[in-house]
Amino acid sequence: MKVGTVTAPLLNGIAGKLEQLGFDAVLLSDTQNRAPEVWTALGAASCETNTALLGPGITNTVTRDPAVIASAATTLQMLSAGRAILPIGRGDSAAMFSGNQPAKVAEFETSVQQIRDYLHHYHADRAGYQSSMDWLAIAAEHGPVPIEVIPSGPRMTEVAARTADRISFAVGADPEYIAQFRDHARQAALDAGRDPAKLKFGAWLNVVVNPDRAVALEAVRGTTAVWARFSTHRRDKHNLPKPLRDVVEHLKHYDKTQWAQQGATTEAMMPTEFVDWFAIAGDVDYCRERLKGIAALNLDFCYIVPGNLGFADAVGEASIRTFAKEILPGLRRSQ
Question: Which domain, by its residues, includes 195?
């Protein structure tokens, strides 16, 4: 299994450092009110890396037009000699901090299909207007950038199965729950006339490694709230696993002004039992054992989401380095 990670687009060689630690993919967060511009940072990252896949983690169709996304992704594909990927979702912090809401599912699917048309055919139907991007053909030798959709519910899983090349599930770290989404995606791809064997499947995993389990749990509590909150968008909340169903009403009142901040009110109220179910937090042996269940799913890839600040705080940096040294080699061999 290939293993990537996500961090803020720090302009300090962070992508090169993560590649040197052994990560197969480096995603830089796309949240313009909280971090530097992601596509500029990704261009810089392409110059400091040699093998890692690069992409935004995660871009959206609310603050960025489909043509802008296709242009930026293809530029990165050229700069990185074919190492670009395009994780894309309905919108979270980038949208909320610009006064917007996440895209509606149907609108999102239309936008993703437009991006796909640009990347594969160099033109797209924009409400009856044939929008051309012929210059994208100069990157043809590297192939179109793979589109990756990140579902947290059944409707988005079906959208992903119809439009994406890669599907990564943001549903926590319970293997059985991840497997349900993967199986649903495979069936949805068949229903759409696509071969599920040609899709790549992955998962986003909130992981903090620390010898003090209490420290690890506190470090991952904030990102657990952020990622679990996506499930509040679902219409069929009664079908959620009990640990998630028990906190979904609480997450509806998430304080957006405190997004991913250490000590945020919502974070502080997240039950430890839920954090322990949704995330993976503990010492090396504990995390390695939990990750065995993920590896047994035979996913193509996963992303390790560190604590609130990742490389920007001591606990996060130590976690990433320990993970890379003690756990990453075994996960990569599991494929």
Answer: 2-216+273-333
